[in-house]
Design goal:
- The structure holds three protein chains of three kinds.
- Chain A is of the alpha/beta class.
- Helices cover about 40% and strands about 20% of the residues of chain A.
- Chain A has helices at about 1-20, 45-60, 75-85, 100-110, 140-155, 170-190, 210-220, 235-245, 270-285, 330-340, 360-365, and strands at about 30-35, 65, 90-95, 115-120, 135-140, 160-165, 195-205, 225-230, 250-255, 265-270, 295-300, 305, 375.
- In chain A, helix 2 (about 45-60) packs parallel to helix 9 and helix 3 runs parallel beside helix 4 (about 100-110).
- The termini of chain A are far apart.
- Chain B folds into four domains: about 35-125 and about 205-285, 3-Layer(aba) Sandwich (Rossmann fold), CATH 3.40.50; about 135-205, no CATH class; about 290-380 and about 470-560, 3-Layer(aba) Sandwich (Rossmann fold), CATH 3.40.50.300; about 395-465, no CATH class.
- In chain B, helix 9 (about 220-235) links the parallel strand 9 and strand 10 (about 240-245).
- Chain B is globular and about 75 Å long.
- The chains are: A alpha/beta, B alpha/beta, C mainly alpha.
- Chains in contact: A-C, B-C.
- Chains A and C meet through helix 1, strand 2, helix 3 and helix 4 of A and helix 2, helix 3, helix 13 and helix 16 of C.
Chain lengths: ~375, ~550, ~400
């Protein structure tokens, strides 16, 4: 017993000597709090973190760090923010709408700390919105992203398209409306006849991977749909699995989903990394925080806030357009430039009679001024 | 059959351990009286000693298993090693066989110091051992077992023919009859033992150690073994014979070394000593071998067993076949038989541990055939189980908790589901005093830390003190030393004299003959004889046990 | 043992204390923790040498700065620890604590959302509902074990999955409970939340007091009642308990029922905890993941040697280390994953406490005794050999 204790103490002492003279507290400036997923979730966490990393590397900022909350409840996120502030964070990046309520509390609690809230706006648990001057609420022009996806698909030769959104919430609606407008634009450019393109339009009513959703996707594929824009969180998994079985294609959403399934030809992404970098730039380099402070800023094509993936994550030399038949980077750049120039006016919202926001085929056709596209709503 | 035996051996070993710990606490009393000075022997005629173990000391943590023990084995003699369980016999033999290393002392062969650091060394020195628990591969044939490890081969190919010739020759030479092609698990225990002996001979060992070889044999087989051992001695082989049975030593050994509590009490010439003296050396006091009993006063029938059949767990056959008998108040009925003939299963069925497939059991006129165990206990059945560690005790419970194992639910010891600790304590202390249960910390001692004898005393105290009309005692003295055996026999007789019925199951012939009023011999699941111990001899009993004789027809007279 | 002149009674007393099971278990647990700490420290040195010492000490003591959270996070694992430990006393391995936990959580959620009850009663009803949910989920493997002798490990593992998928399905299918826009449960009404203890910045609530009280009650049941007596007897020696006429089947079912109830309460306590943010509450995401707190309960139970009082401390210890770990990762620049590894190592070794108890600790003791034995082969040696 004594021997063991002695041994333990010796080892402990040796370790202390080895390390005891190291530096002390490395407080850091920029912190990112992950949401329920991990830092390599190929989604919000990863996209934002890559932005933070890229910015810090470019500007030689060493003290940045991500923090995993102890639990994924509002208070868990708030506690993680507390920890980050305790550790000296000056800027805290919070990716995703799950942070809306915690950031609302934190913006009052830590007025001297800057928060970058991605894809959300701070509000109370009862949905009273308020964005203080130390918070930059970043949203994305989903309609532009959807536009690009729809445009690329038609240009690539697809004629029977589908859309499966989650619930008809503003973000999903915007993706869908943009998608239809992109389809219409491409069809017009190609000089197709009226009604040459069909789009089956559907809201699943949830954001879950369910058998119902998979069955719906499968039915759509069986009816001849060639590609479905899966726009609703885990709904994508259902669609991808149906696409796998039907040997058909999927368009991903939010982030580049090419690694989720080989059926994903492209993804209508939000430029998480780019937006994070832009806001950080305003804080550290251009001293123009006011541009974003205290309000919701939409990122769009003009500031690289949306787009289709142009590089493959983890392989810079690979061709991000390899899953298209003919559509390529050149064609993409062209349409992107017109979009960025602001010359295309896209509709983000529509007047919809349904209280749940589900538009009818007619509302879509007239509202979005569709001619070449024949829409059926499920 | 064999599995049961193996288990028995393991249990014996377990109870031996129990003894071992107890041993060094009290210093052996009366040591000087029997301390024969072995130094006298050591200088005499050195070349006569084939093996000498000089001043061997072997310690285990907290215990000195062998304390300065000297044992000298002459060429061609049968040397008995006598001692109670836990006296250090097995440790000493393990040292000789290379299983343990002694801290002090040396081993000489033919006067030269040798090192025995593993059984292989021992084998090279010509030392062979028949273990109490046979070390045979059950699914191999006899021949394969004998040559195991020393297979004659040419370029890796077995040369069985050569081996067979040698085995048959040895078999003939010493009268060890075996069938070389029989599968070991299918042959009798006696033959398995002969296989073990042949294994030693095949390896050309000339120093043979027998570790309690008679424990598993019938009287007839024991006689045979004694003859074989004498033959070996005649052929010039030297034999170390470990036992605690005095009769066997008196009949076969030339000299005897007695160990007690790790110390060497002395070495005596058998022809100059008596059984009484040996036992005094072994135990340290006079032992009363005769169980004193009054004439039985038979009362009414307490236990009636009718046409009971119990299926076997290990084969498709029934372990107990249509057995009927009765036990009356005031008598001790003994179920005798060689282990594995259905006695354990019968007892399990009566006590409710196992289900019977047919038959009826009544206790004091109440049908308890299907009653749960608790019901049986309440109806007046007390049960000293065969396996005190498995069934009899919760080893991790304190002594007091174990003493109320059958009674904790009675109002005396609980109120509203809460155990009345003071009541348990005082009850435990009473039993400890009355039954002289010794332990290091009294009532709060963990049962695991008690010696086997005291564990058994605790069970007996619990079962006898509990209100009962029938006491079922299954091998109550297994693995215990002479003193404890004496105590238990007294308790059994006292219970009987108090007008209770006692059903005893025993494998010890002496116990059967001494304690019981009536003997029921079981053979292959049937009762083959109902005997009066006063009218028969041990040899006769042995014939019944081995199935060679029966005085009962299959249809029992008690059958309804 | 040096003091040979001491009266035998005194000596017995001392050896009784130092050799008692409780003490050796305790030393074994400490030893296991110490080993875990050393290995954890080594990992930290490898990962980031310059901060390792401060990081390590923060890990050990950082939790003290967040005592409220230590108690808050200890609550559910204390409950699942009791669940596993209690079943273990009876010789049953309740690996299904996760499923019972999830089920308890769902029952609590259901009552929280669907029943309208006055404040002060509502949360109690939710807690009780959680207990019932866990009990049901523990009882089924108990029945299988008792009546059909189906190994409880297998059934309860399967019930982890069945429970988790069922709950996820039920939640997603209930529009009141599920907020599909946020892919998690909606905010519970305040009346369904357990009253907070009012520690600033922490969710610590009345549940921890209930949990500790339950642990004490469990201790009393185990050690003072005939039921506990039977239970432990069965756990130590199934055959002896049968021989003594104890009702093994009934006790098995009852044990699993109670164990399930404890886990269910753990789930209820976790989901019903109050939020420091007004209007908010704890939320559950039905993402097909088995509740980790159930498995943490196994570590807690092992570290606490299945003793309810020990489990209180082991739950607090594990929660404490985890809180310290979180502080370290934010304060000293360790990646959260590294800290997870270190915490896992510490818990893992701690869970070996049982093993250490029977092997290493005994080996050490033996060696020491062997040295002393040459002087006095006393009765302390006895106990050692017995364990051998």
């Amino acid at each position: 017993m004594k021997k063991i204790i002695a041994l333990v103490l010796t080892v402990a002492l040796a370790c202390m000597m080895l390390t005891g003279c190291g530096t002390k507290n490395t407080s850091f400036q920029i912190a990112l709090i992950t949401d329920k997923g991990n830092i390599d979730d190929k989604s919000f966490n990863q996209g934002s973190w890559e932005g933070v990393e890229a910015f810090c590397k470019a500007n030689k900022i060493k003290d940045y760090q991500y923090i995993k909350p102890e639990d994924t409840s509002d208070t868990g996120y708030l506690a993680a923010i507390d920890n980050a502030v305790t550790a000296g964070a000056k800027v805290i990046v919070t990716p995703g709408y799950l942070f809306e309520v915690p950031v609302y509390t934190a913006q009052t609690k830590y007025p001297e700390v800057k928060f970058i809230l991605l894809d959300g706006a701070p509000h109370t648990a009862d949905y009273v919105y308020e964005t203080k001057s130390n918070v930059a609420s970043i949203m994305y022009a989903e309609e532009q992203s959807g536009y690009l996806a729809g445009y690329a698909a038609v240009k690539d030769g697809y004629t029977k398209l589908g859309f499966m959104g989650g619930m008809a919430v503003p973000a999903v609606q915007a993706f869908g409306y943009g998608y239809l407008q992109g389809v219409e634009a491409a069809a017009t450019e190609l000089g197709l006849a009226d009604g040459a393109i069909t789009v089956t339009y559907h809201y699943t009513g949830d954001f879950a991977e369910t058998d119902t959703n998979k069955a719906m996707a499968k039915t759509m594929y069986q009816e001849g749909t060639q590609v479905i824009f899966a726009c609703g969180g885990s709904v994508g998994k259902s669609v991808m699995s149906a696409a796998n079985e039907a040997d058909a294609k999927v368009i991903g959403v939010d982030v580049d989903q090419r690694y989720d399934s080989t059926t994903v030809i492209t993804s209508a992404t939000k430029g998480l990394g780019a937006s994070v970098q832009a806001v950080l730039e305003s804080i550290y380099n251009t001293n123009s925080w006011d541009t974003y402070a205290g309000k919701t800023t939409y990122f769009d094509a003009s500031n690289n806030g949306v787009g289709l993936p142009t590089v493959v994550i983890g392989d810079e030399k690979a061709n991000a357009f390899d899953r298209f038949n003919s559509f390529d980077k050149a064609a993409y750049d062209e349409v992107y430039a017109t979009l960025a120039s602001g010359s295309i006016d896209l509709k983000r919202t529509l007047e919809v009679a349904d209280p749940n926001g589900i538009a009818t085929a007619e509302e879509l056709t007239t509202g979005l001024n569709l001619k070449k596209v024949a829409v059926t709503v499920r | 059959m064999n599995k049961i035996l193996n288990r028995a051996a393991a249990l014996a070993a377990a109870s031996f351990n129990g003894q071992g710990q107890k041993a060094p606490i009290e210093s052996p009393s009366g040591q000087e009286a029997y301390s024969i000075n072995y130094e006298d022997y050591s200088e005499v005629n050195m070349e006569n000693y084939i093996i000498e173990m000089l001043h061997i000391t072997k310690e285990f943590p907290g215990i000195i298993a062998n304390d300065d023990i000297t044992l000298q084995l002459k060429k061609g003699e049968i040397h008995a090693l006598l001692g109670e369980n836990g006296a250090g016999k097995s440790t000493l033999m393990s040292v000789l066989f290379g299983l343990h290393q002694a801290e002090k002392g040396e081993i000489k062969k033919n006067g030269e110091v040798v090192r025995v650091s593993n059984p292989k060394d021992a084998n090279n020195l010509g030392i062979g051992m028949v273990h109490q628990h046979f070390k045979l591969v059950e699914i191999f044939t006899v021949l394969e077992n004998i040559i195991l490890g020393v297979e004659p081969n040419k370029a890796g190919f077995l040369q069985k023919k050569e081996a067979r010739e040698k085995v048959m020759e040895l078999s003939k030479q010493y009268g060890l009859h075996v069938d070389p092609d029989a599968i070991v698990e299918k042959i009798s225990v006696g033959m398995q033992q002969r296989v073990e002996i042949l294994k030693m001979l095949y390896r050309e060992n000339d120093i043979l150690i027998f570790d309690e070889p008679t424990a598993v044999l019938t009287p007839q087989e024991i006689d045979e073994l004694m003859d074989i051992m004498r033959n070996f001695a005649k052929e010039g082989k030297s034999i170390l014979f470990i036992t605690h049975k005095l009769n066997e030593i008196m009949s076969v050994a030339d000299r005897c070394t007695v160990l007690r509590k790790g110390k060497c009490i002395g070495t005596v010439e058998i022809k100059n000593t008596t059984k009484e003296e040996l036992s005094r050396m072994m135990v340290g006091r006079d032992v009363n071998f005769v169980v004193e009993k009054q004439e039985e006063k038979l009362g009414e029938v307490v236990l009636q067993v009718s046409n009971v059949t119990v299926p076997s767990k290990i084969s498709k056959k029934d372990a107990v076949k249509d057995i009927s008998f009765e036990v009356r108040a005031g008598e001790i009925v003994c179920l005798a038989g060689i282990e594995g003939n259905g006695q354990s299963e019968l007892i399990s069925a009566i006590t409710g541990l196992e289900k019977m497939s047919r038959g009826k059991v009544t206790l004091c006129g109440k049908n308890i055939t299907k009653a749960p165990i608790r019901q049986r206990t309440k109806s007046g059945m007390s049960h000293i189980p065969e396996d005190r560690h498995k069934h009899g005790l919760v080893l991790d419970y304190s002594l007091e908790d174990n003493l109320v194992l059958q009674r904790y639910h009675q109002p005396e010891f609980q109120r509203g589901g809460f155990i009345k600790r003071p009541a348990v304590r005082s009850y435990a202390e009473r039993l400890i005093k009355e039954y002289d249960i010794r332990s290091s910390q009294g009532a709060i001692t963990i049962a695991r830390g008690m010696s086997g004898g005291n564990q058994q005393k605790a069970i007996i105290a619990r079962e006898i003190d509990k209100e009962h009309k029938l006491l079922i005692a299954v091998q109550p003295t297994r693995g215990l030393d002479v003193g404890a055996i004496e105590f238990i026999h007294k308790q059994l007789v006292a219970t009987r004299d108090a007008g209770k019925a006692v059903l005893l199951m025993s494998l010890e012939l002496d116990e059967i003959m001494e304690v019981s009023d009536r003997i029921l011999v079981m053979y292959e699941g049937e009762i083959v004889g109902e005997l009066n111990p006063k009218e028969i001899t041990v040899q006769e009993l042995g014939l019944y046990m081995s199935g060679a004789k029966r005085n009962m027809e299959k249809e029992n007279s008690y059958a309804e | 043992m040096q003091n040979n002149q001491a009266s035998p009674k005194f000596k017995d007393m001392i050896t009784g204390i130092t050799k008692s099971k409780a003490v050796s278990t305790f030393t074994a647990a400490l030893l296991a923790i110490a080993l875990g700490l050393i290995f954890g420290f080594i990992v930290m040195i490898v990962a980031k040498p310059e901060n390792s010492w401060y990081g390590f000490t923060t890990m050990l003591f950082g939790g003290l700065r967040r005592l409220g959270d230590v108690f808050y996070y200890a609550t559910p694992i204390l409950m699942t620890g009791l669940s596993v430990g209690f079943a273990f006393k009876m010789g049953l391995f309740n690996i299904g604590a996760s499923g019972q936990y999830t089920m308890g959580m769902f029952f609590a959620l259901y009552v929280g959302f669907m029943w309208k009850l006055p404040p002060g009663i509502h949360w109690i009803a939710c807690v009780l509902a959680g207990m019932v949910g866990g009990m049901i989920w523990g009882f089924i493997p108990g029945i299988c074990k008792a009546l059909a002798n189906v190994n409880e490990v297998i059934t309860s593992i399967m019930f982890n999955y069945i429970g988790m998928y069922l709950v996820d399905m039920w939640i997603q299918g209930n529009a009141v409970i599920y907020d599909s826009g946020k892919t998690r449960t909606s905010y519970l009404p305040v009346s369904a939340q357990i009253p907070s203890l009012g520690v600033t910045g922490s969710n610590v609530n009345v549940a921890i007091i209930i949990a500790i009280a339950l642990a004490v009650i469990l201790y009393i049941v185990l050690n003072k009642t005939t039921f506990g007596y039977e239970l432990r007897a069965t756990g130590y020696n199934r055959y002896a308990s049968k021989y003594a006429g104890m009702n093994d089947k009934r006790n098995t079912m009852l044990t699993m029922l109670i164990a399930g109830g404890f886990s269910g309460l753990g789930g209820a306590f976790a989901i019903l905890a109050p939020s420091t943010i007004i209007g908010s509450s704890m939320t559950y995401e039905p993402i097909n993941v088995i509740a980790a707190n159930g498995f943490n309960g196994i570590a807690v139970a092992l570290l606490g040697s299945s003793n309810p009082i020990g489990i209180i401390f082991s739950a607090l210890f594990i929660s404490h280390i985890q809180r310290g770990g979180t502080v370290v990762s934010s304060l000293y620049g360790y990646k959260p994953e590294i800290i997870d590894v270190v915490i896992a190592i510490i818990i893992y070794f701690s869970a070996f406490a049982m093993l250490m108890n029977s092997n290493v600790a005994r080996m050490i003791k033996k060696r020491r005794l062997a040295k002393e034995a040459s002087g006095n082969p006393g009765n302390d040696g006895q106990q050692d050999r017995k364990e051998a």
